[in-house]
Amino acid sequence: MCEPVLDIRALTKSFGALVASDNVSLTIMPGEIHALIGPNGAGKSTLIKQIMGELAPDSGQVLFNGQDVSQFSAVKRARAGMARSFQVSAVAPEFSVLQNAMLAVQGQSTRSFRFFKPAMKDRSLTEPALEVLKRVGLEARANQPAGDLSHGQRRQLEIALALALKPRLFLLDEPMAGMGPEGGARLTDFLSDLRQTAPILLVEHDMDAVFSLADRISVLVYGRIIASGTVAEIRANPQVREAYLGAEAGA
């Protein structure tokens, strides 16, 4: 039987009287997209920060590929293969598309460089950077300032930056935010293929995308997972319909 790539065990986090994560457990299996959904204020961001090592839980464990990484820093978890994209783009707009990708490639190693001019001739940086840009369809825009990209292209670049980290797990935080129907459809197709590179924990409000992509869905409400299951199981769950999905579930 396959072991989980990510195994979250009873994570709990409180801020005073507010319980932001209430004994949360979930797993991400190889090759799957596991969507995490819930209303605003449900605790999704707090949970992701604990998974990534940006916030220490009060109790519980995070296991990554069978290793307890609960005490790992965010940097150490990233180097172990956790790659995150953010709801708000983390792209450096003043750098070119290629330079952004090169920074991500360099960040995957312990090496650093001070100046872009000599670095632009370093094939150990430029070649893998161009490769990840090609994978997301941005190779032709390599020399364009990242700040000139469209919203959808910035999302593509952000995923390229995650790919440059040679991830063993993607954590994607609302990748569909701000996307129009055409861009959203293209990104949905891309994410469907991306699971073959590494499994995905998908935090998303676009329920059409969630229902199209997810192998499993976990529903977070007031810091607690109230249901986990397949798309069909979540659509049919009366507790989920009442707490979050409403009429959408029957659409």
| CATH homologous superfamily assignment of the largest domain | P-loop containing nucleotide triphosphate hydrolases
Helix content: 25-40%
Separation, N- and C-terminal Cα atoms = 35 Å
Please tally the β strands and state the result.
10
Question: Could you explain the architecture of this structure?
Answer:
With 251 residues, this protein is an alpha/beta fold. It has helices spanning 44-52, 74-80, 97-108, 116-119, 123-135, 151-164, 181-194, 207-213, 231-236, 238-245, and strands spanning 6-15, 18-28, 33-37, 59-64, 67-68, 82-85, 169-173, 200-203, 216-221, 224-229. The strands form 2 sheets. The chain has a 6-stranded mixed beta sheet with strand order 6-7-8-3-9-10, sandwiched between helices. A 4-stranded antiparallel beta sheet has the order 2-1-4-5, with helices on one face. The longest helix is centred in the middle third of the chain and has 14 residues, at 151-164.
Concise description?
With 251 residues, this protein is α/β, with parallel strands linked by helices. It is 37% helix and 24% strand.
